[in-house]
Inverse folding.
């Protein structure tokens, strides 16, 4: 089993003592997170979010429940640790490895970033906070690596943090976003950010981190009146993005003109995509959920020709299945996905696999196997285990044969992998 590394970083020269990232307490992270939200947004805005379940509004600011809420925040902050957290310096410049984006819990501000070195089997946890002295934020969604930079999308904080991928040092941020999801680098002057709610894709300069435009994707003909945009894949000058929440479209963006030029109707709620060696786009749809106002149907796996944009093959799962996290191996001839277990399928197959590639010991569809990543160099498989979404999660590393190599603890709800 992997162990936490005490090498590979240097203590600050004026620090009284070193605190390894693993030992930064969860309460410290939560306290700093709440305090930062109060500083950034104001106490009433924070209360609105914390107490939204009972529909507290600014107009009720003098009521007992809000006074109690304010008192609760004061008590939480007064109980925070007063001891300083010393800066920890990392050096991943020579390391082949993987960043693990740990989502944390909604509204707790306890998302985090981990790094794992497969050569030494060492894991470094809480590296963003340890290096930069501030918490990562509320619900870290994804991370994209480009030119020794790491773009970390923090969904519920509405921003993207940019770090040096060699040291985890903060380099800049992109703020003022609604509910950002994923970053796609188009070229050295242009990148896209998808969004769950804004009905636009934001365009920014990946070198200056400045926003330079928007692509409108709103759908006025739908009763839900939006296209939530998620992952992005590129074929020639076209960028394809899946509309997951209450939607059934794959949008096609011309990256030369930054215009929406087409859409492909698929099954309900496409949640992930990859493109194979034959330029076929594979899409997993989850079918929604029972009682959804948008409807509920069998989940599906679709094969779409990127050139013609026609659906060539459609596979359907059993009603109640919830497939997600579609991935592809480095040779782009085999896809993997989660559906309680890990499943493996050749891109030439004409039917869904009958037996799981890696079986889960969990009997429930909630908790357990939560994220999946394939190392683009070694073809090794990384599996994020959220356990119960309350405690720190586990990552398991498998050989391409499916044999377990290693497992190690990370942060709460490991949700995405970025390979360095």
């Amino acid at each position: 089993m992997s162990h936490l590394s005490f090498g590979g970083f240097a203590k600050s020269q004026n620090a009284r003592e070193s605190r390894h990232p693993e030992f930064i307490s969860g309460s410290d992270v939560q306290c700093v997170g709440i305090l930062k939200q109060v500083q950034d947004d104001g106490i009433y805005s924070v209360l609105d979010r914390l107490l939204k379940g009972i529909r507290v509004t600014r107009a009720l600011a003098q009521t007992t429940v809000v006074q109690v809420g304010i008192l609760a925040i004061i008590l939480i902050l007064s109980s925070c640790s007063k001891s300083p957290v010393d800066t920890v310096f990392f050096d991943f410049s020579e390391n082949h490895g993987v960043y693990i984006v740990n989502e944390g819990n909604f509204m707790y501000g306890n998302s985090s970033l981990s790094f794992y070195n497969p050569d030494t089997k060492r894991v470094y946890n809480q590296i963003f906070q340890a290096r930069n002295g501030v918490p990562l934020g509320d619900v870290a969604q994804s991370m994209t690596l480009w030119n020794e930079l790491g773009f970390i999308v923090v969904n519920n904080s509405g921003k993207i943090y940019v770090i040096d991928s060699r040291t985890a040092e903060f380099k800049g941020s992109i703020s003022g976003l609604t509910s950002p999801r994923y970053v796609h680098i188009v070229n050295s002057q242009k990148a896209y950010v998808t969004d769950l709610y804004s009905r636009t894709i934001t365009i920014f300069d990946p070198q200056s981190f400045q926003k330079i435009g928007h692509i409108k994707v709103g759908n006025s003909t739908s009763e839900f009146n939006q296209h939530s945009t998620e992952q992005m894949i590129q074929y020639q000058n076209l960028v394809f993005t899946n509309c997951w929440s209450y939607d059934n479209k794959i949008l096609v963006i011309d990256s030369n003109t930054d215009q929406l030029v087409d859409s492909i109707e698929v099954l309900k709620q496409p949640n992930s995509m990859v493109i194979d060696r034959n330029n076929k786009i594979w899409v997993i749809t989850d079918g929604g959920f029972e009682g959804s106002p948008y409807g509920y149907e069998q989940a599906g796996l679709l094969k779409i020709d990127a050139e013609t944009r026609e659906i060539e093959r459609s596979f359907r799962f059993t009603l109640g299945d919830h497939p997600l996290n579609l991935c592809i191996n480095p040779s782009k001839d085999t896809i993997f996905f989660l559906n309680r277990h890990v499943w493996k399928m050749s891109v030439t197959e004409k039917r869904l696999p009958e037996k799981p590639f890696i079986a889960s010991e969990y009997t429930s569809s909630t908790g357990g196997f939560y994220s999946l990543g394939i190392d683009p160099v070694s073809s090794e498989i990384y599996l994020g285990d959220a356990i119960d979404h309350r405690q720190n999660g586990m990552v398991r590393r498998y050989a391409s044969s499916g044999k377990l190599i290693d497992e190690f603890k990370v942060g709460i709800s490991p949700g995405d992998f970025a390979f360095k």
